[in-house]
Amino acid sequence: MLDLRGKKAFIAGIGDDNGFGWAIAKALAEAGAEILIGTWAPIVKIFKTSWANGKFDESRKMQNGQMMEFLKLYPMDAMYDKMQDVPEEVKTNKRYAEFSHYTLSEVAAQVEADYGQIDILVHSLANAPEVTKSLLDTSRQGYLAAMSSSAYSFVSLISNFGRIMKPHGSALNLTYIASERVCPGYGGGMSSAKAALESDTRTLAWEAGRKWGIRVNAISAGAHRSRAAKAIGMIDDMIAYAKANAPLTKDLHAEEVGHAAAFLLSPLASAITGQILFVDNGLHAMGLAVDSQALQNNPIYSGS
Fold it and tell me: How much is the pTM?
């Protein structure tokens, strides 16, 4: 059993209780870690209200009967490294008006002031404003926005938090198989961003490992019906395809990703870094869609 008592984990990107970020936070809490949450500034009020009103209570229940708690929530926007980067129209937007320190460098400084050092860092962030468009129809602005919020944000997170992470600490991000395989419909530059994120994972494993002694890994998770995934508009088709063609013909549960993440982030994985671990019921191993009409009359593809 994992024992993460005495360790502090910062999870960037939790906005509700049905995404991978939440599942990872809960798995870490189950192992005894203390949780710090980074939530996109415009939805902080919604998240806090939902938490206070008991909307997440069922999801917060842990195996030991206790409820998952967090030490502190930090409003953040991973599009910006420092306040000078924030456009005036964002600063004055009513959804940001009550916050003043939400850039990544400022959030890292607040965490340091509050708790000194942390042990674990999780990047559960992705956004592409034009995700429903094909790559050919994606604008330069949309493409760069996807790269900034979904890939460079991890570089910035490591750069800003690495200095306050304890030696032998661990960082993790979440990617998707569209980084290396064609997934029609996963557009807006998101596939490009995931490819960059995986490349950066390997480079950061080297740089952050040598500079701070921390490990950097990624989980390539299968399709899951999270709030963010619903924005793609075809998540149900992606899930159905995975169930029809993966070696394990079952739903992928968020807690399965959470358990794998907790292992990678724990001392049990002390020699693992620069790794992209697939947690997708084995779909990544397949080179043939066995539910294809071209194979429907061949009994060998029934899997029985």
Answer: 0.94
